[in-house]
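Researcher: Sit down with what I've pasted below and flag anything odd:
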Amino acid sequence: MTRPLGALAGRTAVVLLSGGLDSGTCLAMARRAGARVLALTIDYNQRHRRELDAAVTLAKAHGVLRHVIIGLDLAAFGGSALTADLPVPKRGIKSGIPVTYVPARNSIFLSVALGWAEAAGASDIVIGVNALDYSGYPDCRPEFVEAFEHLANIATRAGIEGTARFRVHSPLLRLTKAGIVRAAVEAGLDMGQTWSCYDPTPDGRHCGLCDSCRLRKKGFAEAGVPDPTDYAR
């Protein structure tokens, strides 16, 4: 949930790190707050695999304790333009849940993060979900984050025995994309190291037309911050 990350000072936290602007901002905020970070990246065989390289770069740049990349092939299920042979929408952001929604992705990611947190003796998990400037995903809403935090404390040994009180931190939850850009600047994130595009061009640039690219451009423009991104269009 939305909590000041200053509460993480001196604590170990698992940060879900996709390599995108939002997760990169969360990583920088957690490190700026003084957290010892375990960075978790899920390679779910997604279309936009360029972000995995960005995650590695960000983890090194911010001095995490450990960076683990776990392979979890959600393409075996399909059901999304990011995990199946379906076109990525590029005609502008529409209402409703888009085809780029990956079924239960954040539930799966948080479950893996919870497993590592409990094994490592940590009780804090940080995720970069956002409920304002986002693409309509149901697993980016405050109700979801609150429900998962409750689940974490009734589905784990540490939670039942009372040795830990798990907290899911989503510091970007109620920020606009412009607000996220400003938070990234304040946290000292090199946003040029992040990756957002759902459908990179063959020469390795952001397409500039998918929902994620449009939101990224919108955030920089509204924040009045120079956009370091190389867009094809």
User: Anything to note?
Assistant: Helices lie at 21-32, 50-61, 105-120, 142-154, 157-161, 177-187, 211-223. The chain is about 35% helix and 10% strand. Residues 31 and 106 are 22 Å apart (CA to CA). The chain has a mean pLDDT of 95.
